[in-house]
Design goal:
36% helix, alpha/beta, 11 helices, four-stranded mixed beta sheet, Alpha/beta knot, 2 domains, elongated
């Protein structure tokens, strides 16, 4: 197998297309940068189409190559220089995979006896989305539902910020109306996190089947959610500050829910 050493190689050109959200959607493929993240994708049953690697960077670690080959994935060797141009990480470990995009729907959510849902509306920054996915994984959330998404779920920066936990969760897109209808049908209470909330989050019973809704930092939640949610809750804070980073707000409220559930 020849080592690719040129950016004009067709395999590299096709790979670089996946840095654009439009092409990811059109081709049904996305990139995963890093050994740990790729291993999580594999263990979650994601379809690995191809694995790019640089012998100078992987430091003799061949297990991942064997694992991808056993799943019929294509193995492509590139030079260190080329790898550093195709990857996203500042300090790459030498592995980058192309993975099939798997779209999920509300019907794919498997509910337990006491579900905990995370709903995100118009969250814009990939880092915030990835951080919330990481928190959702930490609290063992049943699913993450994204309304009116402003950033591609499979943006490489989302995957990186989530530390690959996106692959171990049910993450899907749905409209606000679809989400509200689904929650009501399954008797799951909805709590909108808003500065206009009438009750502080610690004074509300969050221990039952619940969905916590978070909006963008720029515009907060839509009127549809503010009027559609069963209750609006707020995080108290010092005068002069009216909001927190959305990923911080999500972590604060979700861990309070877990504290109450474990009480």
């Amino acid at each position: 197998m020849a080592t690719i050493s040129s950016l004009s190689n067709p395999s590299i050109k096709n790979l670089l297309r996946l840095k654009k959200a439009g092409d990811r959607k059109k081709l049904g493929l996305f990139m995963v940068d890093g050994r740990r993240e790729i291993e999580l994708a594999l263990s979650a049953g994601q379809g690995i189409v191809s694995l790019f690697y640089s012998p100078d960077l992987i430091k003799g670690q061949q297990e991942l190559i064997s694992a991808v080959r056993s799943k019929q994935g294509e193995i492509i060797e590139v030079t260190k220089n080329i790898f550093q141009k195709i990857c996203y990480k500042e300090n790459p470990d030498g592995f980058l995979a192309v993975v099939k995009l798997q779209e999920k729907k509300l019907a794919d959510i498997k509910l337990n006896k006491n579900p905990l849902l995370v709903i995100l509306e118009r969250v814009e920054k990939p880092g915030n989305l990835g951080a919330i996915l990481r928190t959702a994984y930490a609290v063992n959330a049943t699913a993450v539902i994204i309304n009116d998404n402003q950033t591609d779920i499979y943006n490489p920066n989302v995957i990186r910020a989530s530390e690959g936990t996106i692959f171990s969760q049910t993450v899907l897109k749905a409209s606000v109306s679809e989400t509200l209808e689904w929650l009501r049908a399954h008797k799951i209470s909805s709590f909108a996190a808003a500065t206009s909330g009438s009750q502080e989050y610690t004074s509300v019973d969050l221990s039952g089947p619940a969905a916590f809704v978070f909006g963008s930092e720029a515009s907060g939640l839509s009127r549809e959610w503010l009027e559609g949610a069963e209750r609006a809750i707020k995080i108290p804070m010092r005068h002069g500050l009216d909001s927190l980073n959305v990923s911080v707000s999500a972590a604060v409220i979700l861990f309070e829910s877990i504290r109450q559930r474990n009480r």
